[in-house]
Every structure is written in structure tokens, then in C-alpha cells.
Amino acid sequence: MSTSQAGLDKSASRYRLGLSCLERDAVQHAVAADGGISLCGEQVSPLPTLGWSLPFVPTVTRACRACVRLAEKPDGVVPHGQS
Questions:
Q1: C-alpha distances in angstroms, 27 versus 75, 77, 83?
Q2: What's the pLDDT tens digit per position in 28-53?
Q3: Chain-centre distance of CA 75, in angstroms?
Q4: Cα–Cα distance between 28 and 76 in angstroms, integer?
Q5: Going along the chain, which residue ranges are E strands?
Q6: pTM of the predicted structure, to 2 decimals
Q7: 7-32 residue pLDDT tens
Q8: Cα–Cα distance between 7 and 43 in angstroms, integer?
Q9: So which domain of life are we looking at (predicted)?
Q10: Nearest CA among 66, 71, 16 for reference residue 44
């Protein structure tokens, strides 16, 4: 794993997975632990599994490019539409 890849995985791991829909072609978004709005501002459905949530993985094919960019930003960046 490259250094930049390791940094991307670490920065994005603080977000959980949120789906734009529950169909096969759903886009995967990054969601803060306490919200239902993704970093890019999309209304999403978290995918809880037995009381815990799956992490957002920025390297998957259907990852939202805007969420990937925003997840790379340092701590303290406010997600779209939140104050």
C-alpha cells in the first residue's frame, strides 16, 4: 500500500457507509457517525449491521467522488449543509 493510499484510508475511516438507495447500483457515501446526510450533502440510508455500521471505503468502485475528496480533508471540516 502506498503512503498516499494509507493516508486516504486513515482519513476516510472515521466515516460510516451511507447508500444513496438500496438497489444494486447504489452510490456509497461518507456519513458522519451522527447523521443521515453525506459529506457531499446527499440524503442517504446508513447500513447498520447488528448494532454497528460499516465503514466508508473510498477505494470502492461506487464511492462518491465528492465524498472521497471531502473525507481527505483534515478534522474539523464541516460536512455540506451542517454547521
A1: 24, 22, 25
A2: 999 987 778 999 999 998 776 777 78
A3: 14
A4: 22
A5: 16-19, 28-31, 45-46, 48-49, 52-53
A6: 0.71
A7: 455 555 689 999 988 788 899 999 98
A8: 27
A9: Bacteria
A10: 16
